[in-house]
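Hi again,

Forgot to attach this to my earlier email, sorry! This is the prediction with NAP bound. I've pasted everything inline since the attachment limit keeps bouncing my files.
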Amino acid sequence: MTKVLLFGATGNVGKKIAAELTAQGYDITIVARSKEKAGELAAITANFKIADVTRPKQLHDICRGFEVIVSALGKSVSINDKSKPSFHDINFTANANILMDAKKNVVRKFVYVSALHSEKYTHLGYFNAHHSFSQKLKQSGINYSIIKPAAVYSAFADLIPMAREGKLVTIGKGDKKTNPIYEGDLAKICVDSIKEYNAIVEAGGKHIYTRQQINDIIQQAVNPALKIKNVPVGSIKFMLPFIKIFNSNKYDKYAFFTEVTQHHTIAPMLGEMKLEDYIKARVR
Ligand SMILES: NC(=O)c1ccc[n+]([C@@H]2O[C@H](COP(=O)([O-])OP(=O)(O)OC[C@H]3O[C@@H](n4cnc5c(N)ncnc54)[C@H](OP(=O)(O)O)[C@@H]3O)[C@@H](O)[C@H]2O)c1
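Structure tokens for the complex follow:
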């Protein structure tokens, strides 16, 4: 059995990757920041390592004995995440330290979950970190897969409580389109890519929605009686420099949300599950 070490296993994408690796017969070990966190995957695997990925010493020889590394490790984009490290600290530096250890321990394959169009928006912390690490991985000499989702369905979970309280807003006209993908479908793409050589896979769902349509799906599922407000892009862009002064992590997230909602973000349509079904299941 191929031995796989999975980082970011406790995240929305990571949990699905863990399940898919097990379903496809890999021998998996997960890395989590605490025993309690690792316990969330107890039904999938009993093999875990505890490490603080922001401390390079704790990553020393963590990859020893593994043939494949899969990393869905990244700072959360959720507005509810108040953790101190930046996108650069986690998505770039922590993954770069893992990669260094993987090279030292002659790992044969490294799969990384990046983000669609990261190369286009390198002025933003989130995309810059994804792009910079992807470049480093490509230059590492290790056989890589870089998986670039448009967005994953769980990214919209924050909008459910907002919709319940009538606080859901559409930034600008809401006419820009995207095709997010269910994390279970993305996990299959990640695991299938282990067998590929130096692959870059852009991945979206089967259905394309405008940002307004996504908000409408959520609002309809939660409480159709409440209205979604529109916020002019200009007013958010005006606020961004002030947010940056007081909280650079918050700025990175708001700048990211503002940018992605003002451009079409469409990837090859590889996913199966519909967003409507996912949201309905979550609000039940
Ligand atoms: N969400 C999207 O729409 C989307 C779209 C494109 C690409 N991506 C990328 O895909 C990757 C996975 O996304 P996701 O939605 O699964 O994210 P997630 O649910 O926030 O999971 C992130 C994972 O990274 C870990 N992590 C984050 N900060 C950490 C820290 N300081 N120390 C230790 N572990 C830390 C988390 O551990 P804990 O569980 O302990 O917090 C979790 O296992 C990310 O790199 C993300 O940027 C996401």
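Residues 8-14, 33, 37, 53-54, 72-77, 83, 85, 90-91, 113, 115, 149, 151-152, 154-155 surround NAP (CB under 6 Å). The mean pLDDT is 96.

That should be everything now.

G.
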